[in-house]
Write a structure and sequence with these properties.
With 154 residues, this protein is α+β, with helices and mostly antiparallel strands. It has helices at residues 25-45, 107-120; strands spanning 5-9, 12-22, 52-57, 64-72, 86-90, 93-101, 125-133, 146-153. The longest helix has 21 residues, at 25-45.
Length: 154
């Protein structure tokens, strides 16, 4: 069972590549994986240490998925962004947060429960929403993957 919490967060700087793909899970995986690899290569080439892996979503489209895939970094690292790798910060303020445990392909179910919670509690969805990927899917079984989700409120 998901536990939804309202909490305040501080802004977090991150470096990312922006991408778009269909909502097919294999397309999402391939597109996100490519973006994460490009940003990791960029970080490595500039000796920037990543802190957390994240994806940030500003738009909600039923047919396509647009996102920023990247890594949180130290505040001074954002000045090194260039080319396809851009810099931004997640916003500070009150968010709704919860942790999804399980395969990434089942995140949609957790988001559906989140939308029910938002409606039931009279909250209004804002932007962005971001996901922090706690575990490495290369070594963690899919059913044990943890994804921390932060939802901006309007």
């Amino acid at each position: 069972m998901l536990e939804f919490k309202l909490t305040n967060v501080e802004e977090q700087p991150y470096l990312y590549e922006e991408r778009s793909c269909s909502r097919d899970p294999s397309d999402i995986s391939a597109t996100m994986g490519g973006a994460f690899q490009n940003v990791m290569d960029f970080l490595s080439s500039r000796q920037i240490s990543p802190i957390q892996v994240l994806a940030v979503y500003y738009t909600y489209d039923p047919d396509r998925m647009s996102f920023r895939a990247g890594f949180t970094v130290s505040p001074d690292a954002v000045t090194k962004a260039e080319g396809a790798v851009k810099a931004a910060v997640t916003p500070a303020g009150q968010v709704l947060t919860f942790t999804h445990v399980g395969p990434y392909s089942e995140l949609r179910h957790s988001y559906g429960l989140m939308m029910e919670y938002i409606e039931k509690n009279g909250l209004k969805l804002g932007a962005p929403t971001w996901e922090i990927y706690v575990d490495d899917p290369q070594v963690t079984p899919p059913e044990q993957l943890k994804t921390e989700i932060f939802v901006s409120l309007a």
